[in-house]
Design goal:
Length: about 150
């Protein structure tokens, strides 16, 4: 076999290998959800995760979420997240400027979760979208009790 034919054969084999690898399943990625998608995920059994610190979570949180700070050890993720690696997870943090949700989502991917998303607008946007609490109706002035009639002694 000539040298040029050997090089061509090797090049073809290498190209074929690259194509076969490229045809394999792609690695899971992080989806970006809006609030409607987040709400649907949770209604369908997904887990909503507040990736902020415990202090941030204590200051206010989206109802139904669990707190797994993005700085947590893998053992904390394993303890708090579902055992099913195909379970849907949606991470959020304080706002679009916060990176905790993405850090938490990446940690979940590394642990083998395959359906991972972030709600980037975060707690701040969710809170702003909530209706203002109803103000209590003004209290009516207390009716004065009629003066007790004095009876002559």
């Amino acid at each position: 076999m000539s040298l040029s034919r050997a090089i061509l054969t090797s090049a073809c084999a290498l190209a074929a290998s690259a194509l076969l690898v490229g045809c394999g399943a792609s690695a899971p990625t992080i989806a970006n959800y809006d609030w409607a998608q987040t709400e649907t995920a949770v209604k369908n059994g997904g887990t909503l995760i507040d990736a902020r610190s415990t202090k941030g979570h204590a200051a206010g949180t989206i109802p139904g979420s669990i707190n797994v700070p993005c700085t947590s050890e893998n053992s904390v993720y394993a303890e708090k997240l579902p055992e099913d690696r195909a379970a849907e997870l949606v991470f959020y943090c304080g706002s679009e400027k916060c990176s905790a949700s993405t850090k938490g989502a990446n940690a979940a991917l590394k642990l083998g979760f395959t359906k991972v998303a972030v709600y980037k607008p975060g707690y701040k946007a969710w809170k702003a979208s909530q209706p203002a609490p109803a103000e209590p109706a003004p209290e009516a002035p207390a009716a004065e009790a009629p003066a007790a009639a004095e009876t002559p002694a």
